[in-house]
């Protein structure tokens, strides 16, 4: 259980922050950038949820919870020490990726195949989901970059990859199952 009784600690005033294992790193460290971007994504998703209802809102809430799991995973280096840790760190799992894939398949089954790229927009929910999609891609890029030099859970990276796809398909659902998608017209303004 997390207990937050004091919000400011002054420990970061000199430009460092603590990782999940207690190590202090610069606030611009690649690991901090990766989990910070997943937090940014969660905030953007909170705005998107203002326009969602029913099962879509419930799915977005599940994803918000997953994004806290993702941040907990990314903020904890030293995966090799997981088995010896007094409190094993929370790691993303393949089952979370599979759930996204199943949901993508279910949503996509009701959509007409695209014949052009979709411009971000249409309904307010779709527009916000496109923002979430692009922030998820940035979080994925940062996580992949981090994985070049440090241990990163492969399921965390895969989750981000699927999540951006999930947001794309969900944006089409939010656009009246694709009927209100705004399609790119190549060279339309020449």
TrEMBL record:
Name of the protein in question: Corrinoid adenosyltransferase
> Is Transferase there in the keyword field?
yes
EC no. given is 2.5.1.17
Q: What InterPro entries has UniProt attached to this entry?
A: CblAdoTrfase-like, CblAdoTrfase-like_sf, PduO-typ
One function term, GO molecular function aspect: corrinoid adenosyltransferase activity
Q: Which GO terms describe its biological process?
A: cobalamin biosynthetic process
State any GO CC term: cytoplasm
Q: What class of enzyme is it?
A: transferase
Copy the pathway line from the protein's UniProt record. Answer: Cofactor biosynthesis; adenosylcobalamin biosynthesis; adenosylcobalamin from cob(II)yrinate a,c-diamide: step 2/7
Per UniProt, subcellular location reads as: Cytoplasm
In the UniProt record, does the keyword Transferase occur?
yes
Q: Which Gene3D superfamilies match?
A: Cobalamin adenosyltransferase-like
Provide the catalytic activity annotation. 2 cob(II)alamin + reduced [electron-transfer flavoprotein] + 2 ATP = 2 adenosylcob(III)alamin + 2 triphosphate + oxidized [electron-transfer flavoprotein] + 3 H(+); 2 cob(II)yrinate a,c diamide + reduced [electron-transfer flavoprotein] + 2 ATP = 2 adenosylcob(III)yrinate a,c-diamide + 2 triphosphate + oxidized [electron-transfer flavoprotein] + 3 H(+)
Q: Which PANTHER family match?
A: CORRINOID ADENOSYLTRANSFERASE, CORRINOID ADENOSYLTRANSFERASE MMAB
Grouped into one coarse class, the protein's main location is: cytoplasm
Instruction: Family membership, please give it.
Output: Belongs to the Cob(I)alamin adenosyltransferase family.
Q: Which Pfam families does the annotation name?
A: Cob_adeno_trans
Start and end residues of each Cobalamin adenosyltransferase-like domain: 7-174
Keywords from the named record: ATP-binding, Cobalamin biosynthesis, Cytoplasm, Nucleotide-binding, Transferase
């Amino acid at each position: 259980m997390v207990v937050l009784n004091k919000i400011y600690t002054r420990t970061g005033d000199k430009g460092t922050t603590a990782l999940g294992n207690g190590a202090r790193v610069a606030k611009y460290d690649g690991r901090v950038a990766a989990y910070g971007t997943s937090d940014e994504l969660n905030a953007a998703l909170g705005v998107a949820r203002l326009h969602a209802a029913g099962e879509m809102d419930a799915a977005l809430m599940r994803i918000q919870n997953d994004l806290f799991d993702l941040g907990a995973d990314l903020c904890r280096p030293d995966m090799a020490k997981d088995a010896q840790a007094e409190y094993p760190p929370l790691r993303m799992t393949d089952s979370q990726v599979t759930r996204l894939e199943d949901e993508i398949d279910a949503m996509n089954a009701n959509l007409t195949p695209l014949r052009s790229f979709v411009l971000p927009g249409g309904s307010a929910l779709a527009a916000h989901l496109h923002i979430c999609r692009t922030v998820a891609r940035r979080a994925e890029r940062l996580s992949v970059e981090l994985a070049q030099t440090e241990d990163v859970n492969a399921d965390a990276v895969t989750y981000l990859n699927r999540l951006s796809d999930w947001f794309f398909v969900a944006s089409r659902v939010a656009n009246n199952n694709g009927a209100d998608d705004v399609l790119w017209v190549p060279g339309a303004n020449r």
